[in-house]
Write the structure tokens for this entry.
Amino acid sequence: MALVIRGARVLAGSPPALTRADVLVEGDRIAAVGAGVGAPAEARVLDASGRIVLPGLGNAHTHAASHLARGRAGNWTLEDLLTNAPANYGFRTPEDDYLSAAIGAIEMLKTGCTSAYDLYMAVPAITDEAFEATVRAYTDVGVRVVLAPAVADVVFFQTVPGLLGLLPADLRTIVAGMQAAPTKGLLELSERAIRRWNGSAQGRVRVAVAPTIPNQASDEFLDGCRRLVREYGVGVHTHLAESKVQVIESRRRWGKTIVARLAEHGLLGPGFVGAHGVWLADDDMKMLADTGGAIAHNPGSNLRLGCGIAPVRELLDRGVAVGLGTDGSVCADNQNLFEALRIASVVSTIRFPHETPRWLDAATVWSLATAGSARVLGQAADLGAIAPGRKADLVLLRADSVFLRPLADPLNALVYSETGASVDTVLVDGHVVVQGGRVTTVDEAGIYARAQEAADRQHRASAESRALAGRLAPFVAAACRAAVATPLPFDRYAAPPRT
């Protein structure tokens, strides 16, 4: 059935501008945009007077399983976060993972995000049942998703330079006894997920391959991922040069950068997405540009974990596609892309003092969260803009919001002032999934109540795991401090190196 949105101001065009217009939706796509567009007699009319219509935002990188552990992170580096991963992600049922994914999806919709690239994680290992529960959560809530089982066949602690030599004997024995899931089993799991779920929910769910961190992937595993990508035509998404520790370890172990190693295994290409990309060298960026790869920029997470400031301006100047992401709620605290928009712009100023043309202005970061994220999700022709033929993934803001008055430059207001609190109505595939600020697809209150119970139970169950992480943390920190003291020909921190 057709639907016509009447009486709104619509943000469309290139560059985007606000104009009085109606939007005709037929099925799951936009059929027409303009003043007084005609509509079938039976079309439903959505009165959008006093509303601003935006394209749905795209979250280029998140983790469904992380939302149940929101608020657990202290002053943690990335490596601290990974040390605590068994405590934060373990001791769960598939229903717990459903709830974790559901609360993240609800938050995204209510803050104007209609699509996401999600690297789903689990400890000690992903199961088919838990992955199915995560697919079901996204399907029930109504967020469009590219979902990838993020897996590794090398234990994290084996990838921290010099760590084992620092550990006392009892901890060294514990770490030495840790075993990753078998390579063959991880590849089979990923293949089953692709075969069963890719293209489900009327195409709103797609599945990709995710060697979660290249340093935690054996050569055999990377080659297996390449086979799956080529055989099934799916994308590949990995955490790429997120911290300096990872870059130092890759050079130490393989004698090359992380990007060069991925290229060697045939994983770079138009379907490749690297999350973060903070510590990319010039040659890395050139390889990504030459092969058509993309980067998911997560400025809030990068700052929260002290990873550094990603070279987004350099990536864009080279022609690399960049999308905007939040990362998971355990390290970035929320799924609000409006917050990510503001952080992405203001943090870029630090890298180029008084070189304002190189800053990421409002128009640039808006394009990251719309067209950029659409490209990262592999759906550039369908998402990221309001135009005939595009998917009807739309967000209606209240124009009388305190964040949008007075309204001068719309993009400046959206990037620097809006918080997501103005979101009133959201459509995905032409269906209303948020109305009057409330999700229409699921019982919000019931899901949040069950999620709180699950989070409390999981936290109690993980006490022993948290204690082990607490014992390991000082040694991980010492090893990381030694690693980041290693000089590189470029720097991504905002402070001079310690002497």
Observations:
- Residues 91 and 458 are 6 Å apart (CA to CA).
- The two ends are 67 Å apart (CA to CA).
